[in-house]
Amino acid sequence: xxxxxxxxxxxxxxxxxxxxxxxxxxxxxxxxxxxxxxxxxxxxxxxxxxxxxxxxxxxxxxxxxxxxxxxxxxxxxxxxxxxxxxxxxxxxxxxxxxxxxxxxxxxxxxxxxxxxxxxxxxxxxxxxxxxxxxxxxxxxxxxxxxxxxxxxxxxxxxxxxxxxxxxxxxxxxxxxxxxxxxxxxxxxxxxxxxxxxxxxxxxxxxxxxxxxxxxxxxxxxxxxxxxxxxxxxxxxxxxxxxxxxxxxxxxxxxxxxxxxxxxxxxxxxxxxxxxxxxxxxxxxxxxxxxxxxxxxxxxxxxxxxxxxxxxxxxxxxxxxxxxxxxxxxxxxxxxxxxxxxxxxxxxxxxxxxxxxxxxxxxxxxxxxxxxxxxxxxxxxxxxxxxxxxxxxxxxxxxxxxxxxxxxxxxxxxxxxxxxxxxxxxxxxxxxxxxxxxxxxxxxxxxxxxxxxxxxxxxxxxxxxxxxxxxxxxxxxxxxxxxxxxxxxxxxxxxxxxxxxxxxxxxxxxxxxxxxxxxxxxxxxxxxxxxxxxxxxxxxxxxxxxxxxxxxxxxxxxxxxxxxxxxxxxxxxxxxxxxxxxxxxxxxxxxxxxxxxxxxxxxxxxxxxxxxxxxxxxxxxxxxxxxxxxxxxxxxxxxxxxxxxxxxxxxxxxxxxxxxxxxxxxxxxxxxxxxxxxxxxxxxxxxxxxxxxxxxxxxxxxxxxxxxxxxxxxxxxxxxxxxxxxxxxxxxxxxxxxxxxxxxxxxxxxxxxx
Length: 753
Description:
Largest sheet: 7 strands, mixed
Number of strands: 20
């Protein structure tokens, strides 16, 4: 844990011109701005907040209280002196970590029969993260300008002239109200809050009121102005049983060259966080996101333990597998990330289009996040070195949350096919002969003679995994109850039904693979309608070709190994793996995944190797599938239990997920009148759960800011105990329920958000 030296708030009067000083290498720059320039910057700009307010509102028809000016001219920056190590400690390096396992006494019934399996404890409390930077802070402004000026005109890493328009900097006090909203609505379901924020070089100007922190490498870390200063080495704020802390970029970046203004770079370093629960909620939205009115608690929206991580993915909007042609924005980064997953030299999970991850609060399994950070270590370091998002050369960054979601889905597919091909069919010594090919063929629906055509046509079967009545019963049994008798999310696909991106089979809600029986036509079909229906049925069928899928040759044309056959169907011929999954899900019946599971009698020989992190069920941690060693003896070399079936089920449960749909809205603030109308419309929408609001104003509009802040104040009036002006905020909260509003003579301090 790092030690901190809290610094007193700095008066604006102390930001005065001083003689230029020789900067310390890598760690300092001249403080070139004057008091007037700093003050103008404070008025002109406000915070860049990368966070999501995803919390329910307590809606009423009361009038919005128009608060005073969003920028306090008496703004006093607050900082913390932080020591920076030469390198991150060992505990910050990604490592294999176990997930919250399903209980052993019901794991078998969960995968073999599709029955509920949980420990009865309900969802575990989560950590909630906010990524934040105060874009109006004088030192941040100076640091950014210094960084821009340091690039030569022909440097490909030089930020674009159009970088970060003013709307990206405007502040509406979102961070403060987001934290309040979580406290007000989800307190029983959260563990710790953490603000991940920026730090700058420690100033070397004798005219500035920054004390000498002592020997070592120090930086100056941002602290929200409304957050109380604590005289502690490791400050931890508390509101009841909820803890809040700050983590600065210098303590998670590797490598760390200087202050980063790139949200993708910051996100790429999440795997270096320390002291984190297994489940965290975060976001990487660089617009101004907003809270959902009325919702079930976050934990129910994001992680019901009986089904795994909940993800919200938009099936009808996809990202291509090739290196993106666009040079700007989010689609560039998503394209680079899918290229990494698909079409680069590694072709890690096979070439395919992958869907868009919705701009909403995201649940993340931290053990899985660290796992992918191990695999793509070089790429995360590469992204960390890019200080700006939009640059002249735009080399492209990885999009960590996009990568996480698709890694989870693809890793689950990989586990299913490995459990069947290597764990169930192949020999314990990784052998594969004609006998194994014939057995595989029979299990997929073929005949002993190989079927004269040596092809199997497959159609998806009927399933009951997410049938609504059954799903709600299982959620209740695991400790999750609806709010006011209503479930706020619908569930479209579960990993218990195979592979979410499978192009084969009928379609269900949201465009995901569906398993409900088709309703018979209410009246006889016309000939054209009948032909269309038959053509549609034919399109959703797939074909397994024996030679294409299993015609693998080993060294010198000999028999292949089971792991080589697995690589063929999983990565080299992805259409084989997709169709095999469709066939085996159908063969498993209406529930469970029994057709994938190895026989109960199959056991490997104990290797006697010392137990280390490799005992955690996982598949090879390789960037290229060609480099992976998938034989039983390699994958299970340190398994504490030699049961292949047990290992396979533990592997599959590590990557469980469910895809949900939640009523959400994406809105924009464009003018005062439009903002009033938009917010009033949101207040009237019953059942709306998540809202994202972008600041799309053409220019600074203090009337819009006041109105929007008043809207937030109306919904979350109670100040947290760690806020400096908690008493004032409570009075403002009373005003929102009919009490006398605060005096306009005392404008709220919001400059630090």
